[in-house]
Amino acid sequence: MRRFIAALAAATLCACGVETASTAATAAALKKQELEQGKKTMEQAQKKIGQSMEQMQQARDAAEK
Q1: pLDDT per position as a tens digit, 38-55
Q2: What is the DSSP letter of 43?
Q3: What is the distance between the alpha carbons of residues 25 and 28, in angstroms, rounded to a whole number?
Q4: Sign of the four-CA dihedral 52, 55, 61, 65
Q5: Running DSSP on this structure, what letter comes out for residue 1?
Q6: Using alpha carbons only, how large is the chain's radius of gyration in Å?
Q7: Dihedral over Cα of 41, 43, 46, 47: its sign
Q8: Calculated CA dihedral for residues 17, 23, 28, 31, nearest 10 degrees
């Protein structure tokens, strides 16, 4: 009986550890996805800024002619 209770307690504690580990892994995966999305957003913003700067330069060149 004592062995059964000890085994049950051990199994319960292991299950908690597995749940905690899976929760941490899920959180890490979400953070990774969030970082990747942030990088994409930053790249798009930089591209738009570059295009705007190019258009401003072309307008300036056209105005000088």
Answers
A1: 999 999 999 999 999 999
A2: H
A3: 5
A4: negative
A5: -
A6: 28
A7: negative
A8: -160
What single-letter DSSP state applies at residue 32? H
Residue 12 amino acid letter: T
* Percentage, residues of the chain above pLDDT 70: 75
Which of 5, 11, 25, 57 lies closest to 49 in space, CA to CA? Answer: 57
Which residues 6+ apart lie within 8 Å of 5 measured at CB?
A: none
Q: Phi and psi of 7, rounded to 5°? A: -65, -40
Would you state the structure tokens that stand for residue 8, as one six-digit string? Answer: 């049950």
- Cα–Cα distance, 44 to 34 (Å, whole number): 15
Quote the CA–CA distance of 51 and 47 in Å, as a whole number: 6
